[in-house]
Write a structure and sequence with these properties.
- The chain is α/β, with parallel strands linked by helices.
- The chain has a domain of 63 residues.
- 31% of the residues lie in helices and 30% in strands.
- The chain contains six helices and ten strands.
- The strands form two sheets. The chain has a six-stranded mixed β-sheet, with helices on both faces. A four-stranded antiparallel β-sheet has the order 2-1-4-5, covered by helices on one side.
- A hairpin with a 2-residue loop joins strand 4 and strand 5.
- The longest helix has 17 residues.
- The radius of gyration is 17 Å and the shape is globular.
- The mean pLDDT is 91.
């Protein structure tokens, strides 16, 4: 690992072929992200935020450049190895919460631990995570019985339950009102300390920019700032 960074993004480019020619979504992105910090990845819609998040999360590969997680170049891993990395070391929270509608809050969170192959201590960990997000008294509620903000918090509990090293959150507050958005962001700040997890959160909400320990700004696929 370099410079105590859990994530190293080096000269990452992403080019998509289109009918009108190649479209460069990311251009020479470089960033080092230390362990246990909240990084805000900001930029307007179409700036390349989600594309970069997908590459860091091993959901996509760069056209050139490399991404190192805990010193390992994930771009060189096989598809099977990348899938295992996503199940065990990386948690995801999306704008669309996509909870399983036929499962209650407890079952939704436990499901992520089953996928990660965790057999011991599941009940205690699920209850701990739901309590962490303020839903300790809603374990038996179905998604249809919860508000949008509550569903998003269940999704966060689900993502954090397998104790991933990294949590990637793509516009997790976009569907929430400003008060709930601030609450979710505060929860992420607390999790970097209590869970020692490294969180990257994309947003175009200017009100949340000061919440991060680091800010990386993208504009038309180009890195404008890293602070």
């Amino acid at each position: 690992m370099e410079n105590n960074n859990i994530i190293e993004i080096k000269q990452v480019n992403r080019i998509f072929p289109t009918a009108g020619g190649d479209f460069q979504a990311l251009k020479d992105i470089n960033a080092g992200i230390p362990k246990g910090v909240l990084t805000i990845l900001k930029g307007r819609s179409g700036s390349g935020k989600t594309t970069l998040l997908n590459i860091v999360g091993a959901l996509d590969r760069p056209s050139s450049g490399e991404v190192l997680i805990q010193g390992k170049n994930i771009c060189k891993l096989s598809d099977t190895e990348r899938e295992k990395l996503r199940r065990t070391s990386i948690g995801f929270v999306f704008q669309s919460v996509s909870l399983i509608p036929t499962m209650n809050a407890f079952q939704n969170v436990e499901f992520s631990m089953r996928l990660a192959g965790i057999k011991e201590g599941r009940k205690q960990r699920v209850e701990e995570c739901l309590k962490m997000v303020g839903l300790g008294n809603r374990v038996n509620h179905m998604p249809s019985e919860m508000s949008g903000g509550e569903q998003q918090r269940v999704a966060i509990a689900r993502a954090i339950a397998p104790r991933p090293a990294i949590l990637l959150a793509d516009e997790p507050t976009a569907e929430l009102d400003s008060a709930m958005a601030a609450e979710v962001t505060k929860l992420f700040q607390e999790m970097t300390k209590t869970e020692n997890v490294t969180i990257i959160m994309t947003t175009h909400d200017t009100g949340l920019m000061d919440a991060g320990d680091m800010v990386i700004e993208l504009e038309n696929g180009v890195q404008v700032t890293s602070e």
